Amino acid sequence: MTESFSYKAEKHMKIIYLSIATLFALSATTFAEAQGNISVTVNGDAVAFTGQPPMSQNGRTLVPLRGVLEKIGATVRYSGPTKTIRATKGDTNISLTLGENEATVNSRQVKLDVPAQAVNGTTLVPLRFVAESLGADVRYDGASRVIAIRTDGKPNVIVPPKEVVTEPAKSDTETFSGIFVDFVSKPKDGDTEVELKMTDGRVLTLTRTAELLFQNQKIGFDDLRSGDKVVATVPAAGAKNLANKATISDDYT
Predict the structure, then answer these.
(1) Exposed e or buried b for every residue in 186-222, given b needs 16+ CB within 10 A?
(2) Contacts of 71 by beta carbon, 8 Å cutoff, 6+ apart
(3) Is CATH 3.10.580.10 the classification given to domain 52-136?
(4) Does 2.40.50 match the CATH number of domain 173-249?
(5) Which residues fall within 8 angstroms of residue 6, CB to CB, at 6 or more apart?
C-alpha cells in the first residue's frame, strides 16, 4: 500500500514538473516570436529605432520610451529610483511604473494589459495606451506589421514601407591602363603637363611632376619606351585622363 502511494505521488510530481517546464517553454517561444520587425510611423514619418526595436507581448506592442512619444509631441521623464515614467502633452499627464499593470491618466487609474518594462537596458511602454491617452489616432496593419499614428487630424491610412535598395557608392576615380606609343608632343621645360599616346588612340595626361614607378623605382619621362604598359588612377568622369602618378611595366597582359 505504501509503495503504491509512493509510486503515484512520484508520478504526480513528474506530471507537475513537466507542466511547469512546458509553460516556461511556451513563454520563451512567445517572447521570441515577439521580436519580429514592427514599423511605426507618426504622421507619415517613419520612427527610427537605433537600439532595442519594438516588440509584441500578449497582443500588445511595446516601444522604446522616447522615440515615439517625443515624435508625438510629448515631454517624457523617467525616474530611476521609483522606476516611474511620466509623459505630458498639453493638459494630459500619464504616469506608469515599470512592472505594474496599472497606470494613471490625469489622476484616473487605468488597467494595463501589459506593463511598461525594461528589455536589454531599454525602457518599453505600451504604445496604443500611451498614444491614445495623449490624443493620437492609432492604426495597426498585421500583414505589413506597420503601426500608424496620427496627431494632425488627417486620415490615418497605413502605407507599408517601401523596401530601401541601397546602391553601391560610385567611385570618383577609375583605373586607366594602356600601352604607350609615343608622346603627343616631346616634353620640354616649362610644360605643366605631359601627354602620352596609347596604341588604341587614347591619351593619358600626366602632370609634369608626376611620379613614374618602374619596379618600385622612380624613373623619368625620358625613360619611357614604346610598348611600355602604363597604369594610372584618373577621374571617373573627367574631361581628360589626368593623373599625377603612373606605374610603368613591360607586362602587356
Answers:
(1) ebeeeeeebbbbbeeeeebbbeeebebeeeeeeeeee
(2) 42, 45, 47
(3) no
(4) yes
(5) none
**Dihedral sign for Cα atoms in the order 37, 144, 132, 29:** negative
Burial level of 83, CB count in 10 A (0-12/13-18/19+)? middle
pTM metric for this prediction: 0.50
Q: Domains of the chain: which residue ranges?
A: 52-136, 173-249
Q: For 159-209, how does the pLDDT look when each residue is reduced to its tens digit (9 = 90+)? A: 766 665 667 777 888 999 999 999 999 888 889 999 999 999 999 999 999
Quote the pLDDT of residue 132.
Answer: 93
Q: Do residues 116 and 102 make contact, with C-beta atoms less than 8 angstroms apart?
A: no
Sign for the CA dihedral angle at 63, 66, 72, 77 comes to positive
Distance CA(155)–CA(158), nearest Å, equals 9
